[in-house]
Amino acid sequence: MKASKFYFKTRKEVSQDEAAISAVLLTKANFIEKLTSGVYNFLPLGLRVIRKIEQIIREEMEAIGGQEILMALLNPRKNWEQTGRWDTFNALFKVQSKYGSWFALAPTHEEVITPMVKNFIHSYKDLPLYLFHISDKFRDEPRSKSGILRGREFIMKDLYSFHQDEKDLEKYYNRVKKAYQRIFRRCGLNALVVESSGGTFSRFSHEFQVVTPAGEDLFYHCRSCNLYRNKEIIKNTKKCPQCGGPLKELRGSEVGNIFKLKDKYSQSFDLKFRDKNGESKNVMMGCYGIGISRLLGVIVEANHDANGIIWPPEVAPFEYHLMGLLKGAKKEDEAIKRQVESLYEKMLKRGIEVFYDDRENVSSGEKLVEADLLGLPYRIIISEKSLKNHSFELKERKSQKVKMIKLKDFDKIIKGR
Amino acid sequence: MKASKFYFKTRKEVSQDEAAISAVLLTKANFIEKLTSGVYNFLPLGLRVIRKIEQIIREEMEAIGGQEILMALLNPRKNWEQTGRWDTFNALFKVQSKYGSWFALAPTHEEVITPMVKNFIHSYKDLPLYLFHISDKFRDEPRSKSGILRGREFIMKDLYSFHQDEKDLEKYYNRVKKAYQRIFRRCGLNALVVESSGGTFSRFSHEFQVVTPAGEDLFYHCRSCNLYRNKEIIKNTKKCPQCGGPLKELRGSEVGNIFKLKDKYSQSFDLKFRDKNGESKNVMMGCYGIGISRLLGVIVEANHDANGIIWPPEVAPFEYHLMGLLKGAKKEDEAIKRQVESLYEKMLKRGIEVFYDDRENVSSGEKLVEADLLGLPYRIIISEKSLKNHSFELKERKSQKVKMIKLKDFDKIIKGR
User: Fold this and answer.
1) Residue A393 pLDDT grade (very low, low, confident, very high; cuts 50, 70, 90)
2) CATH 3.40.50.800 placement within chain B
3) What are the phi and psi torsion angles at A235 (to 5°)?
4) Dmax over Cα atoms in chain B, in whole Å?
5) Which terminus of chain A has fewer Cβ atoms in its 10 Å neighbourhood, N or C?
6) What's the ipTM?
7) Smallest Cα–Cα separation from A265: which of A116, A389, A396?
8) For the domain B318-413, what is the CATH code?
9) What would the pLDDT profile of B114-137 be if each residue is shown by its tens digit?
10) CATH 3.30.930.10: which residues of chain B?
11) Do B93 and A93 touch (CB under 8 A)?
């Protein structure tokens, strides 16, 4: 992609409202733009990252048998009344049609999926069933300063599982736990599995927490027995409830959670199946969420330095940042540009995702600053000096290490797909 | 994909509310499920088609320079007041936060994109610019019986273009017109370009109409000069306004529209640029929409027979439907199943999209009926008879033509990607 043809213009100033470093960096680097408090637009660079996160999640959900669906966001009031959450779900946006009927704007989808699968699940032969969807969600949060870490509108992946009994639910719950760990690792995050409240029916649910100073959650870690537990359900913050060892307080951002619903929603919607003996039983359910737009923010919270973002390779909007270091001397600059163009064409042919900063009206100094801000994993630079040595510079954004590489070795070093 | 592992169960009965044949067939064949009037969930089969339509649109938008973004659905009231449409946009859903502020649920995105690009467009060097997005939209329609042809919540692609002058807008408008014709052709539709009202500023806009009995729009065609014009803007329905020839009335479903906005929204949001002479001028805009979930419905309206859907190849959820015709005799059935499994493995290896109906509890007769309903382009059947001839049956859904093909010729006939 050529920068001159791309919606790309970094910003020096960001609204004072933005307190979270992720929102500041993502706004400056042209990934997102705030529409109003808690509501963001995704610009071409930001959408590329969102799509990569979605693809990682999709692959891992399909690997554990998940089938993708897409559920509606306008939810009929009666579905939410049937579970009692029309009145009790605190952050529910409610909207009335001018023709009378009321809708909830979906903040989660138990009220849609549970009655939906009644057309599908009749016998034990129809179980287990795993359905996931990726879409917008809405929560009427008080004004916050967390940027995209906590939005009123956000992108989320929900997975719902349906089982014959608690044992099968437990088995799948543990498979999802492992799939989630793979997802966060691929996104460049070290997510800790933290015990949290299980609600009415289960002892625990689990949250996936990434340690960051901007995190909204507090949790505790015991080094002796490696317990992680959320502050909400720990009674004594001095001693580990499991082994009595000392506890360390940590601050984190939640990127996912998994929850055994058991038959809470099956009861509300009378979702039953006939077991092997012909007996009618409630279906057991689990639900598993990942906040995708939040993940975009947490990745930046956990991967940046004073100069900008440092994208983990698998979610970077492009893998390479390519540019010529121009001197202002016409003849030399032309030679550099020709060489850069030729590398660009080569990379495109091989299917390498490359962002080529070919802009004419921006100085090389500014381009270098913007490249650090943008934070692509690798940078390839041709300068007058490198060209004299028949070489290019290859810089890794994370380590800041620079290697001089002979142009004739380009094919060996820079591999396509 | 094996049917036994897939969310797949056809239905015999569909709610009497569904009047449109597309909604009836798509519900029976397990592509969509109605949540409430005008609001649908997309099941795995339906979502596969939606994704294919989206991918066709994405490719054609990128081919004419479009860059993809994703804009928010919760729109601040003030943006809609600034254009005057908070009060005048008839189908606007309005929702109030419990913390006081009001939002519109986006039915279209001029109110978001115009102020957004003010951070990007300053000089003529930043123009032209083409941005598109694919997402949900909301319109508070009266209850209708059109199924997914007219929803309260629907999936739409919007493209917005920004130009220095009307001439450049006109040029791009015509490029989009051609791109739209390619999109609809790839979706298996013959979409007619119909002149319709241009609003306050332009003489005409253009709609893309597919002739169907379920269509909500009336338009006229003159065979002498090949004019197509919408009923709304034709005064005399007897005579062609262009050549005086006789007019034929047609009924159609609109699948897209393109519109020159000129500086209507640039004025509202003071979107200006400096031209080559340093003069400040209003940016010229165009907007171009395609209803994606509606398109799913129109494709079915235009491609079905008494037995079910007939998917155009490029948007079919799978290309091949594979099954064995079992007789109930154990030994013979085992031989058939082994052969079908082996073909299935071959097809998977080659990246062919195949739906293998391996269900044990469904009779072959039912499976054949369901295959017609589902409507995949090609069906491969192994029967006792075909196996004796070392052959398989290849049936084209559209023509219903059957060929017997030798198993040894499989590799020649069935090609992967």
Assistant:
1) very high
2) 318-413
3) -90, -45
4) 86
5) C
6) 0.96
7) A116
8) 3.40.50.800
9) 999 999 999 999 999 999 999 999
10) 11-305
11) no
